[in-house]
Write a structure and sequence with these properties.
Elements (H helix, E strand, L loop, with lengths): L1 H26 L4 E11 L3 E2 L2 E2 L1 E4 L13 E10 L4 H10 L3 E4 H4 L6 H26 L4 E8 L14 E5 L2 E2 L3 H8 L7 E7 L6 E6 L1 E3 L2 E5 L2 E7 L4 E4 L10 H11 L10 E4 L2 E2 L5 E2 L4 H11 L3 E5 L3 H5 L7 E5 L2 H12 L8
Helix pairs in contact: 4-6
Amino acid sequence: MGGVNRRILTLLVALVPILAFGVLLSVVKVPFVSLGPGPTFNTLGEVEGKQVVDIKTDGGASIVHPTSGHLNMTTVSQRDGLTLGQALTLWMSGREQLVPRDLVYPPDKSKDEVDEANNTDFKNSEDNAEYAALSYLKYPMAVTVQSVNDPGPSAGKLQDGDAIDGVNGKPVANLDEFQTILKTTKPGDDIVIDFRRKNAPAGTATITLGDSPDRDYGVLGVGVLDAPWAPFDIDFNLANIGGPSAGLMFSLAVVDKLTTGDLNDGKFIAGTGTITGDGKVGSIGGITHKILAAHEAGATVFLVPADNCTEARSAPQDGLQLVRVETLTQTVDALHTLSAGGEPPHC
C-alpha cells in the first residue's frame, strides 16, 4: 500500500510543474504584438451594402463608368494582449510575426492617442488618394478647403471640399493669392468668400474673422491647400482599415470608375502603397503578409511600391506576378501594358 501512495505522490509532484507551466501559458501576457495576413477588400466592390469607393453626383447624373473584376487593397492583421500560449501558437504557425509591443504602441502614448493618430493618417490618405486621382484625370486646381475648425469663424458657412474662388470680390487662383489677401485683414473684419460646393450651386459667405496669438491678421478658421477640384463627392467607406497603405488602390479605383474600360482587364489585381496628393507611391510595412493574403484571396498580380521590392521578393510568390510601381501614372501605364500582353516593370 505504501508503494502505491509513493507512486501517487511522485505523479502529483511531477504534475505540479506541468500544471504550473499550463497556467503560465494561459495567464501570463507577453509584451509582443502578432502581425500576419489580414483581410483584403475589393476597392471596386461593396462592403456592408456601400460602395468601397462611392462617387456621388448631383441629381443622380452619373459620370461613373461600369467596372468589373478586382483591384484589391490588402491589410496586415494585428493581435494584441497575447498570452504566452497564444504567442507561441501564432509563432509556430509560420504565418505570424511577433514584434515588440513598443514598436506598435509607443510607451509614451496611450492606445487612444495611437488610434487617433492612425485615424488622422487614414483621413489624410483618403484626401491624397482623391487628389492624386483627380490630378491624373486633369481636373483643374483650386484653393480647396481641407478642414473647418468647429467652433471657428467659418463653421456652418464653409465645408470640407469647398473651392474658394474669390475674397471680397477679388479672384484667387492659388493659395499664395488667397493668403496675400488674407494678410491685409485684421481680426473682426467681415470678408466675403466666393465658393463652389460639390453637388450644390456656387455661393457666397460673409465671415467675421477671428484672431490668433501667432499672427496679427484675421483668421478664417479653415485649412486650405492647392488641389485638383471636381464638382462631385468621393467617399471611401472602409473606416480606418488598411491605414495610409490603402492610398494607391483607392486612387486606382477612382481612376477606373471615371474612365472607360477596365484597368484590371479581367485579372485579379491586388496591391498596396501610400500615395501623395501629386501621385507618388510610397513604401509600407508588412509587405510579405500582404502578398500572402493576396495570393490566398486569388490574386495573380500584386502591385509593389518600388522601395518594398527587395523585401517582396523574399515572400513565397507561387506564380503571383510582382509589378513594381512608383507613381499613379506609371501604375496605370503598367496595368495598360499588362492588358496589352506586354511586360510591366517587375520587382
